[in-house]
Amino acid sequence: MDLDKAGENVEEDYVLEVDQLKTIFRTEDGDIPAVSGVSFSLKAGETLGIVGESGSGKSVTSLSIMGLIPKPQGRLSGSIRYKGKEIINLSEGEMREIRGNEISMIFQEPMTSLNPVFTIGNQMVEAVLLHMELSKKEAEQRAIEMLRQVGIPRAEEIMKEYPHQLSGGMRQRVMIAMAMSCNPSILIADEPTTALDVTIQAQILDLMRNLKKDFNTSILLITHDLGVVAEMCDRVIVMYAGKIVEESDVRTLFKNPNHPYTKGLIKSTPRLTSEKQRLYSIPGNVPSFKEMPKGCKFVPRCEYAKDICYKNEPELVYVGEDHKSSCWLNIEQAPSIEEDAS
Amino acid sequence: MLAYTIRRLLMLIPVLIGMSLLVFSIVHLIPGDPAKTILGEKAPPEVLDNMREELGLNDPLIVQYKNYMVGLLTGDLGRSIKTKAPISQEIKPYLAATIELTFFAMVFAIIIGVNAGIIAAWKHNSWFDYIAMLVALIGVSMPVFWLGLMEQWIFAQKLNWLPSIGRANILNPIKPITNFYIIDSILAGNFTGLKEVIKHLILPSIALGTIPMAIIARMTRSSMLEVMKSDYVRTAKAKGVKEFFLIYKHALKNALIPVLTVVGLQIGMLLGGAVLTETIFAWPGIGKYLYDAISMRDYPVIQSGILVIATMFVIINLIVDLLYSAIDPRIRYR
Ligand SMILES: Nc1ncnc2c1ncn2[C@@H]1O[C@H](COP(=O)(O)OP(=O)(O)OP(=O)(O)O)[C@@H](O)[C@H]1O
Ligand SMILES: [Mg+2]
């Protein structure tokens, strides 16, 4: 009995559980498995980072959760549970109740994500009215209050302005205000700062940290900037070519990375402490889905590759407490990487 | 917005001057003697000379231009050679007839075209989409005169539902006040007359509106398809906006911007006088007026008619530009 209860509690802790998510795009040149078998879960109030190079499937993962993958080209399978409820392939009507209300999203493109022909006020009020039982007046008040909370000066005037009158940083703030306006349980932020300059970037991250503190919002933070991850996240997922290659808490990932790809990512992050030297970059590129290797997807770029790596795909296995990695070097009891590299 | 409107109005002045100069040049600089063209090669010299005097052709060109411009500025378009009546008066009912017909043709074209385009884009690759686009394709390639004749044959001759020619019932004539029969019949309180006027408008409006409708439908569809892929429509969807509002609010207002250009051009074309349609439906419009003038070689009428049509074209363009800035806030601040 007790055990059962404990099990239930663990279940309840998660606001989002993604299990074996596969998202495939049907195109004229064949199927593109943009996400192939991704599993992770998100606790209440937790910030989970997803990192990976361009094209690794980060945005597709987040769009899949939001039910925003364009149909019918995009096909989803697997399971996405929100607070225990299956939401994958939910009907449009049911999904609408969740979008913006329970799960909100900030997009990668702040410059084009607001509608150019409606005022900020119009778009903010619309978001509030969709999910809250408020009068127009109250919704306006709420919108102004949200804009103030994300640090927008002259919020009342901004309400009457159009997106093109605002800078990129301001637009992204508006997007955050809009996403947060109905107190969602989960905020998916898809590279919220990539398009912005560094000072603005720091402000936006600060803002998200405060929102999380104040409202206990869970955040799924997508980025390819490990600096942002170190600063913001509790746990991290590393994605490569549509798969998770490593998952751990943030300290472990930086102190003791396991997967060669993660190591490469960390090595290629500029650091102030190290003496001036040429910045490392992982050799090669993410393979296109057409020429995807049969075994480990990272094998063409991996300096530790062995025969087995070319033949079979490694599974994601525990390599420590709460630390998973998918690399043959762990599984085959291979010689340690340090020895190999020397 | 006001400053922009005023600026645009001021910009009209050089355009109109240039246009009048162009029309003047075309009529006066083309080789040949208008008097001879009008009266024929065999006309006696003194008759020809009278005609030249009457047309003011004996004055130096610069004086002719001055007289012409002074006339224009005072609203004097000269007199018709055939009827001797002042053109500015004579042209009014024709102009009103054309504007009234164009208005209804475009209302038909816009309402059907825009909605068909929206639904075709919304239900992209559905049977509605295929049929709508097939109809649109047939619509743009159908000769207007043939469509007009078919309409008359089916709805007037066979079914006898609608009148096939003219603007009003001869037995219930409309007393012209503004020359817009819809307005005039209402002003006169003549509601049976109004009903007749509307009935008379239906067939020619459809004949004239079909090509614009097809063009508008295709433009709306492609523009909507483009906009529906945009990031801001995705944002709206991520907020939980209902599909209807995604389409009719977020996407449509953006998609209408290119559609507006097409609508403006089409109105301009229709106002230019749809000679064929007006002939088939015996519609006393500007096209018919000009056609008659050309066959009679009535030079002053041709010249003024072209000028009036060109002016309307310019005005429509202005209205379209003002509508742009009403729809798209980015234009206002440029
Ligand atoms: N609608 C679509 N149709 C076909 N392929 C798509 C579609 N959307 C995404 N893809 C493909 O899916 C793959 C993953 O794309 P995704 O946008 O998730 O990458 P990402 O990790 O977010 O990269 P970035 O860091 O550049 O944002 C890419 O190869 C992309 O071409
Ligand atoms: Mg992305």
What does this structure look like?
The complex is a heterodimer of chains A (342) and B (334). Chain A is α/β, with parallel strands linked by helices and 342 residues long. Helix content of chain A is 37%, strand content 23%. In chain A, helix 5 crosses helix 7. In chain A, 43% of the residues are buried. Chain B has a single domain (87-327), classed as MetI-like fold, CATH 1.10.3720.10. Chain B is built from 15 helices and no strands. The mean pLDDT of chain B is 88. Classes of the chains: A alpha/beta (342), B mainly alpha (334). Chain A binds chain B through residues 66, 68, 70, 92, 96-101, 104-105, 107, 109, 112-118, 123, 126-127, 130-131, 162, 164-165, 175, 178, and chain B through 229-243, 250, 253-254, 327-330, 333. Bound molecules: adenosine-5'-triphosphate (ATP) and magnesium ion. Adenosine-5'-triphosphate (ATP) binds next to strand 1, strand 2 and helix 2 of chain A.
Instruction: Bin the helical content of chain B.
Output: over 70%
Top-tier CATH class of chain B = Mainly Alpha
Rough outline of chain A: globular
Q: How many helical stretches of chain B? A: 15
Which oligomerization state do the chains in this entry correspond to? heterodimer
Name the helix and strand elements of chain A from N-terminus to C-terminus, one letter apiece: HEEEHEEHEHHHHEHEHEEHHHEEHH
> Kindly, what is the distance between the CA atoms of the first and last residues of chain A, rounded to a whole number of angstroms?
53 Å
Which percent band covers the strand fraction of chain B?
Answer: under 5%
Largest sheet of chain A: 8 strands, mixed
Using only C-alpha atoms, the radius of gyration of chain B works out to: 24 Å
For the CA atoms, what is the radius of gyration of chain A? 21 Å
What is the CATH topology classification name of the largest domain in chain A? Rossmann fold
Q: Could you say which structural class the secondary elements and strand pairing of chain A correspond to?
A: alpha/beta
Helix content of chain A: 25-40%
Give the name of the CATH architecture of the largest domain in chain A: 3-Layer(aba) Sandwich
CATH top level class name of the largest domain in chain A: Alpha Beta
